[in-house]
Amino acid sequence: MSDEERAAASDGGPAVRRLDDWDRSTLEALAAEHGTPLYVFDPARVRENCRRLRAAFPDAEIQYAAKAHTAGETLQTVHDEGLAVECASAGEVRRALRAGIPGSDVIYTAVNPPAGDLDSVVEAWQENPELTITAGAADTVDRLAERGFDGRLRLRINPGVGAGHHEKVVTGGHPKFGVGLDRAPDIAARIDGEFAFAGIHAHAGSGISGDDLANHRELVRRMGDLARELEAD
């Protein structure tokens, strides 16, 4: 075990699993049964990670990003542990629903979704009216209205600040990822009048590590200010 793994384990978190951590005979039996290459995951570790998150954030609604792993058993496991499932494509929405996740715990959040995806997700919503969609542009709101959607709709905000392990995955400050704070109140008012307004959303970035939380605090502050402004209106 490396120093980093020991540190994670001593801090209460699971160590990164390497090949040596797995039972050799189990892996050999799986390879013999299914052939190789073979993707193996451990539901017990998935459950452990979910429980650690819920223990760390007991008052939060935690949503699992389906794009991390869309196998039905993974989706079922995270949902059994109390997590909702956020989907970045229509295909992920279909996988989540096929896995038995109720529409009330499925959220579709995409960047500039193609027409086919919107058609598919709106069709899924018609059968699962509690499903939530996140719109990151006024144009997406228009396109949803054209398709007859009037259900639960969140507004994705670009708060002007983000974080991530590389500049290409810092989404919070990029104009591609959500509407600006200056435009948000007007679009939110429209959503509130034509849809079931389900709140605001922001994504700081991906691969975030380290102890520097300044950008996160600023993102939360800006989103909190916006939420209070919208509630006051």
TrEMBL record:
Swiss-Prot/TrEMBL cofactor(s): pyridoxal 5'-phosphate
Keywords, sorted A to Z: Pyridoxal phosphate
Record has Iron as a keyword: no
Residue ranges constituting the Orn/DAP/Arg decarboxylase 2 N-terminal domain according to the UniProt record: 45-209
Signal peptide (UniProt feature, chain positions): none
Protein name: Diaminopimelate decarboxylase
Organism: Halolamina salina
